[in-house]
Amino acid sequence: MMKTKLYLAFISSLVMVSCGQDSKDGERTISSDVVSIDATASGKTATPGSAPMIAFAEAKHNFGKITQGEIVSYSYVFVNNGGSDLVISSAQGSCGCTVPDYPKGAIKAGAQGKVDVKFDSASKSGLVQKTVTLVTNCTPSTVVLTIEATVDVPEED
What we know:
Elements: H1 2-19, H2 32-35, E1 54-56, E2 60-67, E3 71-80, E4 88-93, E5 98-101, E6 112-120, E7 126-136, E8 142-152
Parallel strand pairs: 2-8
Antiparallel strand pairs: 1-3, 3-6, 4-7, 5-6, 7-8
């Protein structure tokens, strides 16, 4: 019984300590030191101007009119305009119908790359807008690419 009381007291104190202090408005705050990600692919802290920087020629593509069931694709071209290696750690489509393919290795400073996105319009109709979210070692760390299409449903005979 004594062990249980000590265990509960320990857990309670951990919870109280981990909650941190609230701001005067009652909102919790997070130190900017926790959020700052000034890293390069080498693991060294980036100095100003040396961090990777991803720049897309365009972040939105409209396929125009397509027929329901059609699978279309587009390549988003980017350049690493920064001073160190760029790494894309993940790419996630907003639904299973939007599938990205991205470079898995480091993209050198000044080098070009592409993110290929396939969109399957099966069971879609009308104006459709989907996104792909990339997570990188840049600041900011996320980039959102958007596709649009107007999906026509073929008339049945």
